[in-house]
TrEMBL record:
SUPFAM superfamilies cross-referenced by the UniProt entry: NagB/RpiA/CoA transferase-like
Residue span, Glucosamine/galactosamine-6-phosphate isomerase domain: 10-226
InterPro entries given in the database record: 6-phosphogluconolactonase_DevB, 6PGL, Glc/Gal-6P_isomerase, NagB/RpiA_transferase-like
Official protein name in the record: 6-phosphogluconolactonase
GO biological process, one term: carbohydrate metabolic process
Organism: Algoriphagus zhangzhouensis
Function: Hydrolysis of 6-phosphogluconolactone to 6-phosphogluconate.
Keyword set includes Iron: no
Lineage, top ranks: Bacteria, Pseudomonadati, Bacteroidota, Cytophagia, Cytophagales
Gene label: pgl
Annotated keywords: Hydrolase
């Protein structure tokens, strides 16, 4: 595991963007699972502004690690957030974008999206393999849309499952643990003091770490990198 502790959110955005641009250079095609959340917003703005013309977006293929079951125009949509902060500002072919259809029936969409992953990503031991999975970690230790009260979803034999947000009851489609841990690289983007206790437990394997889905992230043969600001990393420094 590699841990990068940066001064602030802007430095996280800069450092991750440099890493992303470098990774893109080394690949003929880069298949990336995106996340929602607060940190990716800043990262997407930075990427678009500073690497918008440098990166060859024709070879980048975007997917989502999780999506809220709402239409793509809804302010809750992870796809809409990505359009607003990244996709609308770069030149990327429409056929490189594989969004979760949040407006569809959740169960049917989880099956459909799982098939999309199987049909468009390279398979490694029969499991779709991303070059890069970007993850956030919620204040409760959730990642993608696998929440502590439904941690069993992690071990599903399916590529995607339907999850329910524990407070709002909102349905979500999420990739499962087998897809996350099959990736060549997994990058956590985590910022803010509200995450510091969970960051400590997950990284140091302390306290209740076993009940947090973020603790299950451990790529089988790939690389795991945490990009954090000082506030999130306070308890591990
Ligand atoms: O609901 C979600 O939250 C997590 C974490 O988001 P954050 O704002 O606490 O950083 C995110 O990874 C996930 O994609 C999103 O749907």
């Amino acid at each position: 595991m590699e841990i990068q502790v940066l001064e602030n959110k802007q430095e996280v955005a800069k450092t991750f963007s440099e890493y992303f641009a470098q990774l893109a250079k080394t690949k003929e095609k880069l298949h990336v699972a995106l996340s929602g959340g607060s940190t990716p917003k800043i990262v997407f703005d930075y990427l678009a502004e500073n690497f918008g013309t440098e990166i060859d977006w024709n070879k980048i293929y975007f997917y989502w690690g999780d999506e809220r079951c709402v239409p793509p125009t809804d302010s809750e949509s992870n796809y809409k957030m990505t359009v607003d902060h990244l996709l609308s500002k770069i030149s990327i072919p429409d056929e490189n974008i594989f969004r979760v259809l949040g407006e569809n029936d959740p169960e049917e969409e989880a099956v459909r999206y799982g098939e999309v992953l199987e049909n468009t990503l390279p398979l490694e031991k029969g499991i779709p393999q991303f070059d890069l999975v970007i993850l956030g970690m919620g204040d409760d230790g959730h990642t993608a849309s696998i929440f502590p009260n439904s941690i069993y979803l992690w071990d599903s034999s399916r590529n995607c499952k339907v999850a329910t947000h524990p407070d709002s009851g909102q349905k979500r489609v999420t990739i499962t643990g087998r897809i996350i841990n099959q990736a060549e690289e997994v990058a956590f983007l985590v910022t803010g003091a509200s995450k510091k206790e969970k960051v400590r437990e997950v990284i140091k394997r302390e306290g209740e770490f076993n009940s947090y889905p973020a603790s299950m992230v451990n790529p089988t043969s790939g690389k795991l990198i945490w990009f954090m600001d000082k506030d999130a990393a306070e308890k591990i420094s």
